[in-house]
Amino acid sequence: MEEKDDEGESVCRLVQPEGLFMRVKKNSIPRVQISTPYSTRPEGDIRNTVGNIPMEWYQDYPHIGYNLDGKKIFKPIRNKDELDEFLDKMENPDYWRTVHDKTTASDIRLSDEQVDLVHRLQKGQFGDVNFNEYEPSVDFFTNEVMIHPVTNRPQDKRSFIPSLIEKEKVSKLVHAIKMGWIKPRKPKETTPQYYDLWAKEDPNAILGRHKMHVPAPKMRLPGHEESYNPPPEYLLTEEERMAWEQQDAEDRKLPFLPQKHSCLRAVPAFSRFIHERFERCLDLYLCPRQRKMRVNVNPEDLIPKLPKPKDLQPFPTTMSLVYIGHSSLVRSISASPTGQWLVSGSDDCTVRFWEVNTGRCMKTLEVGGAVKSVAWNPNPAVCLVAVESTVLLLNPGLGDRLVVSSTDQLITSYEPPEEDKEQAVTWALSEGPEHDNGHRLTLTHPKAVKQVVWHGKGDYLASVMPDNSSNLQVLIHQVSKRRTQNPFRKNKGLVQCVSFHPLRPYFFVATQRYVRVYNLIKQELTKKLMTNCKWISSMAIHPGGDNLICGSYDCRLAWFDLDLSTKPYKMLRHHKKALRGVAYHKHYPLFASGADDGSVIICHGMVYNDLLQNPLIVPVKVLKGHQITHDLGVLDVTFHPTQPWVFSSGADATIRLFT
Amino acid sequence: MGGLQKKKYERGSATNYITRNKARKKLQLSLADFRRLCILKGIYPHEPKHKKKVNKGSTAPRTFYLFKDIRFLLHEPIVRKFREYKVFVRKLRKAYGKAEWTGVERLRDNKPGYKLDHIIKERYPTFIDALRDIDDALSMCFLFSTFARTGKCHVQTITLCRRLTVEWMNYVVTSRSLRKVFLSIKGIYYQAEVLGQLITWLVPYQFAHDHPTDVDYRVMATFTEMYTTLFGFINFRLYQTLNLVYPPKLDSKAESELKAEHEEDYAMDSESYLEKLSALSASLARVVATAEEEENQLDLFPTEGEDQENMQAREKEQKEQEAQKRLFEGLKFFLNREVPRESLAFILRCFGAEVSWDKSLCIGGTYEVTDETITHQIVDRPDMDKQYINRYYIQPQWVFDSVNAQMRLPVEDYFLGTTLPPHLSPFVEEKDGDYVPPEKLKLMALQRGEKPEEEEEDDEEEEEEDEEEDDVDDEELTEEKNLKKMEGTRAQGKTLAVKVTPGKVKPWETGSVGNKVRLEQEEKAEEKRLAIMMMKKKEKYLYDKIMFGKKRTTREVSSLRCAPNGCKATHFKFEWPSQSPDLNLILRCCGRT
């Protein structure tokens, strides 16, 4: 290597003293200061005695320090300018090895050896050419135990005495260990992280708590709308989207907006993913859990199994006749016991008599006041009609001449008693043109009469004058004796309607909420029926006498079995609006109810003679036909006495016959 | 009248419940520790039946725990560990403050830790219990494994989650237990049937997460801690059932193959092993080398009557399942770089296909694009420059739809660049009365083995089925037919297809047979209405409620049927003839452009 660098120049080798080598090693390479090529130099520059000072201090002087004799060393005359410098650089072949010496301000040309040295040092080699860096090492201290000490120095005393500081430290540690402050290192865990945890599983080893444990419900599985490419009908329209955005997050049916992407590449990240996971976590540890028994009921099973209406025939099914003639709402109707005639009273102050089969109006009577109630005498031998405002007894003069005359005879056969009792009503016999019209008797009541009813025998009739303030609300009249009596001493509430028991001497009085049953012979209250209704509107008694129905303004119909209880046996809520009229059929097991919703509902109401069997109630037909005027529909219903036909009168001024 | 007066709230429900704060005080835990304990032990609040009684007369809203639960927590050894950790933190802080470095080191060596094994065992006494409850664990671990390794949680947790999920996927691949897959806008749903349990999990799409600020990551981390423990044990057990080595090792054959191909310095050895596992392209090593999975035949027991039928049904089901497991067997797939590699590789491998991908995409690809034996290449870009003739270029949805349909669907609808048919959820099971998208009907017809040419017949069947519905849906179903007709008429008359709907004939006007039927129906309806009148109040209420729900569903269904963006423009599978402005016009007139 060295030979190569020198290129044959350094044939003669100059053994340099140690000093130079050391010094060069100490200083960094570029700062090598070499004075003359021909003299070896000890440390420091002996030609200049200024010492190690910055040479700039001599910048302004002509000399640059002093030599050993104390003479000034003058700077060489340097008049080289840039150009000279350049020319020198170009021409002088030794320019590259010329170095400027700052201490003497002279240029020095380096010798070959020196250049060689510089090269070697630049390469990181040793300055001395002959230095062998790979000499075999000499072990001064070996691992072998020697019998003699390296030094002969005797050991210190302290090496024989235990250290107090150490003792203190150790005692501290011992104390700490004793007290459990310092614990020995934990041994490393030897069991693997995962192993067969359920190797010895015991399904019965369930803790008490876990008996009540309700496992968390699983997450809902996604539907079509969650697809990245859902069918188009699942996408929201513009309005739906707007509605969705305006809704609160809790109210939304879908927690996300369905979106359609043309390809999988276009699907973005779901921004609420972490939220949803977090909410699930919250649900898992914060929500109370409850086991809800959801009964899976088939709604069809809830519907009661009833006999088919077809098997319960006959009952009216179709509207067959409409009786037109009245000009205002028809409040009340009543059929004659033979079933040939029908009487109706209306708000247009007329009473009309109709022939049932033809629908012809046979007779019209002006009565001078709105007619609230009409009732045909149930006794077939005579034919009387009680018409309200004051109560009128009419002889319609229809049908068999014998019947008509016998009726007249009945009224005229009255003989006034010896002593005139003072009565609540005045009985007056009609005469003249009124008599020709059919008026026979007039009972002038002190108050407006709302309802009249006949007793089954046809001799007694009761009239109702609803009044909350007096006990004079119900009057019972005897036609044959022209006698009137007030059965009640006390006012028990606003009387809505009354009725006679068809067979026994009982009298039914319906007040707003209760129906009271009085024994007329014993003159006492036998029963008080709780109807559970707010306001009773109408009442009808089964021809057998043991059952009763009440219609009320709060859309209910209560069926009472008098033998069973004072509470309704059955409550029907089949009408949508207030009930106005209820009626039983005399022979067939039917009852009807008419309401403001314009419908008449016919029910099969079978009462068994066997006391153990409860009545069977089956609605069989909803009859519609009446128009609703002024929020009123059907006002009264009544059955034909022999046929399974029902008449209904309505607020649309018509009467309809359903057969 | 002797005896002491009873004090209020000293017995009964008031003593059975305890408020959260009182429970916390009883356990001497901070709220955070109490929460952690509840999460780990699976304790949740209870809603008392009579809140006011339990709350000692106050009606303030409070969270109640069962007193028994809290007493149960009192004996939990982990509570002590919580306290020890608290002390450890305090000591460490002190040592730091005093600059006692040896002390710090010693403390760190003795850092208290806890194990959740006993809690897992206690919460899930049997393996099946644990497996039943693994849905959330899977979803959570999959989410955590996609987190970036910065900030939000410990890197160890993330790597552990990743490792466990990879193990799980490898198990599912080996056992071939995947059943359903669904691409939703949230992520990809998978459903597998493991030991008879249906397990569903959701994997987010591979994107960086935008971490929300209103989420408490400590809660999530606690759950993850519990889930990773549970999940690891389950994986161990599952691997054991299949005689696989746990932690999973690649088959020696596969390993050598992979080694030979990938000599580059891909990653550290430990990391690249996980990568190789997650590539899912190689089979796993078994404890006992078995030649082939023996066919587990259903044993036949002599049975009678109903049992026989059940047996046959079960046998059929089993057969179907076996067929589904071999759905893609024999096919060779190549995944382009733009498709989600992991999920597709997972699904395809689950059904027996061979999969590969570009070498630069991921480790583990076994063959190149140039391989001539590739049958399908999955591509999700509009067009490809270089196409091979002997393979199908299909979009990824084909794989998902085929898995859900349990059959290889015709590939034509899924070709490169075509508009995809809608992707339906396999989890929806329509009951009668529910809305069934027309695509599903088509699919069901396909599954029954009818060919698409028979579609029209099929449509007619459906027409009969829902005759009661208005003509709207009939229209939808037979649109295609109409379109064809329209195209036919276009040449002749260019007239609009004016539709004449048959009017209703009143029953009393004619006495034909049809009317008799109608009359009968009306009679039935009337009967029912009358019977409803006779219902008891309670039952009526229930009935009304049920009917209200039913009506609501039918309303929803009908709104879906005639949805305005319904017209189902995309359902048409025809290309617009280039010069057919008339058809365009016709369609626009009909309201379906």
Automatic annotation (TrEMBL), chain A:
GO cellular component: nucleoplasm; PeBoW complex; preribosome, large subunit precursor
Keywords: Nucleus, Repeat, Ribosome biogenesis, rRNA processing, WD repeat
Subcellular location: Nucleus, Nucleolus; Nucleus, Nucleoplasm
Signal sequence extent: none
Positions of WD repeats: 323-364, 627-659
Residues in coiled coil: none
A GO biological process held by the record: maturation of 5.8S rRNA from tricistronic rRNA transcript (SSU-rRNA, 5.8S rRNA, LSU-rRNA)
Presence of the UniProt keyword ATP-binding in the record: no
One GO MF term attached to the UniProt entry: ribonucleoprotein complex binding
InterPro entries: BOP1/Erb1, BOP1_N_dom, WD40/YVTN_repeat-like_dom_sf, WD40_repeat_CS, WD40_repeat_dom_sf, WD40_rpt
Domain BOP1 N-terminal: 58-316
Database matches in Gene3D superfamilies: YVTN repeat-like/Quinoprotein amine dehydrogenase (2.130.10.10)
Domain of life, per lineage: Eukaryota
Pfam name, any one: BOP1NT
Biological role stated in the UniProt entry: Component of the PeBoW complex, which is required for maturation of 28S and 5.8S ribosomal RNAs and formation of the 60S ribosome.
Family: Belongs to the WD repeat BOP1/ERB1 family.
PANTHER family in alphabetical order: RIBOSOME BIOGENESIS PROTEIN BOP1 (PTHR17605:SF0), RIBOSOME BIOGENESIS PROTEIN BOP1 BLOCK OF PROLIFERATION 1 PROTEIN (PTHR17605)
Oligomeric and partner information: Component of the PeBoW complex, composed of BOP1, PES1 and WDR12. Within the PeBoW complex BOP1 interacts directly with PES1 and WDR12. The PeBoW complex also associates with the 66S pre-ribosome. Component of the PeBoW complex, composed of BOP1, PES1 and WDR12. The complex is held together by BOP1, which interacts with PES1 via its N-terminal domain and with WDR12 via a high-affinity interaction between the seven-bladed beta-propeller domains of the 2 proteins. The NOP7 complex associates with the 66S pre-ribosome. The PeBoW complex associates with DDX27, BOP1 interacts directly with DDX27.
Descriptive protein name: Ribosome biogenesis protein BOP1
TrEMBL record, chain B:
Record keyword Transit peptide present: no
Quaternary context: Component of the PeBoW complex, composed of BOP1, PES1 and WDR12. Within the PeBoW complex BOP1 interacts directly with PES1 and WDR12. The PeBoW complex also associates with the 66S pre-ribosome. Component of the PeBoW complex, composed of BOP1, PES1 and WDR12. The complex is held together by BOP1, which interacts with PES1 via its N-terminal domain and with WDR12 via a high-affinity interaction between the seven-bladed beta-propeller domains of the 2 proteins. The PeBoW complex associates with the 66S pre-ribosome. The PeBoW complex also associates with DDX27, PES1 interacts directly with DDX27. Interacts with IRS1 and UBTF. May interact with MAP1B.
UniProt keyword Nucleus, yes or no: yes
Transmembrane stretches, start-end: none
CC annotations in GO: nucleoplasm; PeBoW complex; preribosome, large subunit precursor
Gene Ontology BP term (one): maturation of 5.8S rRNA from tricistronic rRNA transcript (SSU-rRNA, 5.8S rRNA, LSU-rRNA)
Compositional bias segments (type: Acidic residues): 452-478
Protein name: Pescadillo homolog
Compartments it resides in: Nucleus, Nucleolus; Nucleus, Nucleoplasm
GO molecular function: ribonucleoprotein complex binding; RNA binding
Family matches, as CDD domains: BRCT_pescadillo_like (cd17709)
Family indicated by similarity: Belongs to the pescadillo family.
Record-linked HAMAP family: Pescadillo
Organism, scientific name: Oncorhynchus kisutch
Main location: nucleus
SUPFAM superfamilies, A to Z: BRCT domain
Role: Component of the PeBoW complex, which is required for maturation of 28S and 5.8S ribosomal RNAs and formation of the 60S ribosome.
Keywords linked to the UniProt accession: Coiled coil, Nucleus, Ribosome biogenesis, rRNA processing
Comp. bias (Basic and acidic residues): 479-488
